[in-house]
Every structure is written in C-alpha cells, then in structure tokens.
Amino acid sequence: MASDSSLQNNSANQGVRITSLVRPENENDFLDLFQAAFRHQMPPELLRWKYCGLVSPGMLVKQDGLPVAFYGGMPRAINLLGTPVMAVQIGDVMVHPRQRGILSRKGLFFQVASSFLEHFVGDGKTFPVAFGFPSERAFRLAAHLGLYERVGELMQVSWPALKARPSYKFLIRPINPDQDVAAVDRLWLEMADALQDQIIGVRDWSYVQQRYLQHPAFTYQIYLVSSRWTGVPVGIFVIRVHEDTVELLDMIAPPQRLSILVHCLRRVAWGLGKPRVHAWITNQNARLLAGGAGEIASTGITIPHNKWTSGIPASKILDRWWLMGGDTDFN
After folding, report:
1. pTM of the model
2. Residue ranges of domains in the chain, CATH in brackets
C-alpha cells in the first residue's frame, strides 16, 4: 500500500499507519481483528483463499502497533454492460469494537474506506467500479458519510421442493470436472451475450473451479442440465445443502432458460429430502427467477456504489447488477 496515505497524514490519528495483507506476517493481525470485530474466528485457509497473491487486498490499519480497522478488496472480472473490465468486491470491512465510537469523518471507518477508494476506485484507477454486500447498518453509515450510494438490492426467492417424475426432455447430473469444462465455458458465453445490458461477474470454468470447487470451508454441489435427446448443455446450477433447505448459489445459462433450471433444482431438492429451496438475486431479476411458484422477500442487503471518487455515475448502473448468493464471499 502507498506509504503516503491520507490516513497516515491525518493529525487526528496519531500512531496510526496503513499496512498491507500481502506479507505473511500480517495474517495474524487480520485474524485477531476479525475475531474481535465479529466474535468468531475466520479459518486461516479462508483468509488465504480470499486474498492470497493479491496486489491490493485491502487496507489494514494499525494504531500503536495493533490492528484496528480493515477494508478489504477482492478483484473480480466482470462484464460491465457488455465490456470486460476488472471490478473490486469490497468485503471484511471491520473496525475494532474499542474504536467504533466515532461515526463521523474523523472515525477509522471513514478514514480507511475513503483511503481505499481514493487509491483504487474510479476514473483512472485500478478498478472502474466497486461493489459489495454491506449490512443495512454499514450501508447507512457509509451513505451518511458520502462514501456510497444505492444501485440495487438483493432479494430472496424461495420455492417448495417439487415431487415429479424425471423429465423426458432434460437430464440432470453432477458436473464432471474432467469432461464439462467446455460446457461451462459455452454456457457462460451464452449468458454473457444475453446480458449485455447488465453487469455480471464472469462465470467461466476458471471462476467456477476457484469459487466452488476449491473453497476451503464450504461444500457445494454443481449440476449440469442438458437435453436428454441431443446432449446439448442447457444450464448449470450450484447449490449448498443445509439442514432444512437447499440454497441456490449460482446459475449459468441465458435468462430464458432459468425456469428450466429452477424446475430441475426443485426436483433435486425433493430428492435430497429438503422441503424448500431459496436463492438471492438482485431485485430487477427476482420476478424472472421466481416464475409462477416462487415467493419474493427482501434480504435488507443494499448493493452500494462508490460515491466518494469520480467515476461511473450511479444513474448509469442503477438496477443493472446481476448478482446472486454465490457472488458474495460469505455464502
């Protein structure tokens, strides 16, 4: 990180300095701060999966040698209204409980967030756009401080499991990493071509492998749906099985095929003995995903947009993000 950060030069923060997560010696600082901020531990393997090897993994703030704040950034390849660019996904934003009293621009949250945005996000910076999934309280604070503005909302869609005979049109099977790489890449290209009026994270094989098959903490199931007669791939869905529900994390298919995937997913849920399926998706896509059988409810999660530095105006991308639960770093 830049050594001349505005945070270091702020006289109200004596003894404060910005460091980096790139060096292994900072790993325990992050984990100690995470434990203090969220009252549970992050496995070191999950930290490395998120940030290992990144040039700009975020800003870690120390005060008198102790970690007090962090603002994380994970690069994500996206298609921005049809144009491939690199965005940054904000995550693991935290301030030590003993430092949370100042909710103004003198506080550590504002200092670390504004410093990150000034260094990395906006016109002429590393990332033209940033996004994330802040809690309602965190978004309200950031908006109050002039850092964020709203460009979307995550909704929850849920369906009952479906007891039905196997389809005579479509075949459902777990993905085979040795055979299905080309199918995943083909489906992603079809999806990207159909969503050139939206902003969507790349969902090619490299992403699927890193995000779902190599996750150090969670186990996912990935299914390929194809035509029973021609073998042509129709779509892919990714799920995580919970005690009483199936969570749909991701889908890779053009939007017009989502109803086929949802029907297949509900059948899979019944076969797993789970009564319901639920998914998160941005509000402008919720009705399409829900179809006739789905119920839609708010999650309370707002999609933020950088307001602090000059860049893409929020009006240009309002309700344009295609995001699901798998796009988060915590599901």
Report:
1. 0.93
2. 16-132 (3.40.630.30), 156-299 (3.40.630.30)
